[in-house]
Design goal:
This is LRRCT domain-containing protein. There is one protein chain. By secondary structure, this protein is an alpha/beta fold. It has two domains: about 45-205, Alpha-Beta Horseshoe (Leucine-rich repeat, LRR (right-handed beta-alpha superhelix)); about 250-405, Ribonuclease Inhibitor (Leucine-rich repeat, LRR (right-handed beta-alpha superhelix)). It has helices at about 1-25, 30-45, 170-175, 220, 225, 230-235, 240, 360-370, 390-400, 400-410, 425-435; strands at about 50-55, 55-60, 80-85, 90, 105, 115, 130, 155, 160, 190, 245, 250-255, 275, 285, 295-300, 305-310, 320-325, 345, 355, 375, 380. It is elongated. Bound molecules: 2-acetamido-2-deoxy-beta-D-glucopyranose.
């Protein structure tokens, strides 16, 4: 009996062990678990990459599941840029960046930070850019900024700011006119009466005001109805708040899967790559990218685009890659592609290209720009051309109507179909069709002339 009961107790204990272990990591399996975790963390650190770009050392620890700042001795050189975006860091303790005194930029966006201790950024006197957006900060003391006299850019949006008395000094600092790029876009999440207001704009006098007594929330209940997400109802989405911005190796904005129905405003002029894929953007409008002078990659694939306005891509002189695939584009309007001097890759697949005269511009432009690798330019309609490469359609169109052309010019070769589309022919035609933009009078070349 005794034996059985002690066996019972023993087996019960065995059963309970895994549970008690989880709560007491200091014992038995728990210790091994902790040790395992430690090695895992240590392994995670060297997993980061150290890179030199334009003579500056970057340490890239993005998306490494880190829950603490890797010690500075880990790296062979002092980094200038430390990228810790998209990890699991919760607290920035005093002296967290000891040994990182050479940093000029620090990216801590998309972590789980709820607390920044006052001395967290001690020693970062060179720091000019600090990214804290998309964390879980409710409050931040102005003291944390004091060690960083050179700070010019501070991102704080995407945190649930509690606009109460403890934020008073920080908010007043952000509102100093010379601190123009500190805390732009950040908004109060509470109290209700200030919800949705920008830290830049909230009246500091309101922060330390006695709140309405809890029993009489009159003022609080009628007003907030107007404040509920005002930015989403009235204004166009803003790129900085709608997208994630990464600094390495070049400035890149990820705006994919955001439910955007239009191109967000305020794309900064230093963005090199922008991903707008998997949204519901139905058209590109003139000036959508007018500030984005540095863009090299533009990805608008998997949207609902039907219309691309003529001036929407103008000014994108450095664009290399343009992905328009999987949209609802039927043709590209005359002139849309004119500024894309350096384009090298153009993705066009998954669009219902219509093979009638309106598609000719696209083909002419591609012939004029033989360096552009393109894909997916296939007729979807009319039915008889379904699946045919658009270029073939245009060639057969040109072969098929020599008479029409005879009327417009007297070219001795044009009756011989084999001589159609020789490079010279194409070139001559193109020169007429596509003069440099400053010489062009677009109305003169409208499609109706030949259709
Ligand atoms: C654009 O985004 C899609 C979807 O995320 C991706 O498959 C494609 O490779 C991207 N295009 C370019 C040019 O990077």
């Amino acid at each position: 009996m005794r034996l059985t009961s002690s066996l019972l107790v023993a087996s019960l204990l065995l059963l309970l062990l895994p549970f008690s272990d989880a709560k007491k990591p200091g014992k038995g399996r728990g210790l091994r678990g902790a040790r395992h975790k430690l090695t895992r963390d240590r392994l995670a650190t060297p997993d980061c990459s150290e890179l030199t770009e334009s003579g500056e050392v970057f340490v890239d620890c993005q998306s490494r599941r880190l829950n603490s700042i890797p010690p500075s001795q880990t790296w062979s050189q002092q980094p200038k840029h430390l990228l810790l975006a998209h990890n699991r860091i919760k607290v920035l303790h005093d002296g967290a960046f000891t040994g990182y005194e050479g940093l000029t930029s620090l990216d801590l966006q998309q972590n789980h930070i709820t607390l920044v201790e006052e001395g967290a950024f001690q020693g970062l006197t060179q720091l000019t850019t600090l990214l804290l957006q998309n964390n879980r900060l409710g409050t931040l003391s102005e003291e944390v900024l004091i060690p960083m006299p050179n700070l010019g850019y501070l991102r704080l949006h995407g945190n649930p700011w509690s606009c109460l008395c403890p934020m008073d000094s920080l908010i007043r600092t952000l509102q100093v006119p010379s601190n123009r790029y500190l805390g732009t876009h950040a908004r109060c999440a509470e109290p209700l009466r200030l919800k949705g207001l920008k830290l830049k704009q909230v009246d500091p006098e309101m922060l330390c005001k006695e709140m309405d007594p809890a029993g009489h929330p009159q003022g609080d209940e009628t007003e907030p109805l107007f404040h509920i997400e005002p930015s989403h109802i009235r204004t166009k989405p803003d790129a900085t708040t709608s997208c994630n911005t990464y600094l390495f190796p070049q400035v890149r904005m990820d705006c994919s899967h955001r439910g955007l129905t239009e191109v967000p405003t305020g794309i900064p002029d230093d963005v090199v790559h922008i991903d707008l894929s998997h949204n519901s953007i139905s058209q590109l409008r003139a000036k959508d990218f007018h500030a984005a002078r540095s863009l090299r990659t533009l990805n608008i694939s998997h949207n609902n685009m039907e219309n691309i306005e003529k001036a929407s891509l103008s000014g994108l002189l450095h664009l290399r890659e343009l992905d328009l695939s999987y949209n609802s584009v039927h043709f590209i309007q005359y002139g849309v592609l004119e500024d894309l001097y350096f384009l090298s890759q153009l993705k066009l697949g998954g669009n219902p290209w219509v093979c009638d005269y309106s598609i000719h511009y696209m083909v002419y432009w591609l012939r004029l720009h033989p360096g552009v690798r393109h894909s997916g330019l296939l007729c979807r309609s009319p039915l008889e051309h379904n699946g045919e490469p658009v270029q073939e359609y245009v060639n057969s169109y040109n072969r098929g109507c020599p008479k029409e052309r005879q009327q417009s010019r007297a070219d001795p070769d044009e009756t011989d179909p084999k001589l159609w589309n020789t490079p010279m022919e194409v070139q001559g035609e193109l020169e007429e069709e596509l003069e440099p933009s400053h010489l062009r009078v677009p109305q003169k070349y409208q499609i109706y002339r030949l259709s």
